[in-house]
Design goal:
This protein is an alpha+beta fold and 262 residues long. The protein has eight helices and five strands, in the order H-H-H-H-H-E-H-H-E-E-H-E-E.
Amino acid sequence: MVAVSLLIFLFPDMLARIYDADDSLIAQCYTPFRLMSIAFLPNAISETLSVLYFVQGHQKLCRWIEIVTNVGTIGIIVVLALYTPKLIWYFLPVTAWLLLLVMVAMAYVVHRKNRLYAWPTLENTVPSNPAVTFSVPYTSEGIEEFLAQVHPFIEACELPDGFAVDVALEELLYEIMDTHETSNEDGTFDVRIIDKEKELTVVVKSKGPLRNPLYKYSDEEIMDIDENNLRRAILSRLCKNINHKYMNGINCIYMNFYRNEA
């Protein structure tokens, strides 16, 4: 685009001759064509940014850009036509550069509201759902090794209470180990941890009969907790959003840890 703009600016007569213009018309084309060439680059940048914003889901910003672009272009043309009609062709570079400036300024406002969006492209700087997956044996040694391996990932997620994730995982995995079938002793169960923008999700899947590790209780029921449900009671307090599903012989436990309390 820079090369095309430069060629048109330096040799506007060549563009006019392509359209079979005579010498008198060519003489009148110098200024309009050169002004048009100055507008090419900002127009190209504006179009590229608009597509980026739309693809990345900033539809509200795109609507405002469209409104400002249309109203701004019409306003500049009207002002030039009323007060300086001889300079009407200057609306091309003036509107192109001015509206590009307004667009990046609007993008900067979005960036200031959410620092995760890079300026001026507004690309999300957080990786899309980074995750780790492990196969954990039904043994104390396997669980201890898993907890040691996964701790750096949880720590890097920078949750307000990463310690709760570590302890909840430990309690849940030992609960699964203690209740697994003897026939599964040599098998493994799957753990997947997904770091999302607003939450961290832990998904644990294990084969076997229905085993629901959830234990919802009220404060007045604390005296009823014993060694049979202590681990599940601790788990329910460490994770406020925990769900269990059983399908096709597989227990699925979902734990969500939010970055901001709802």
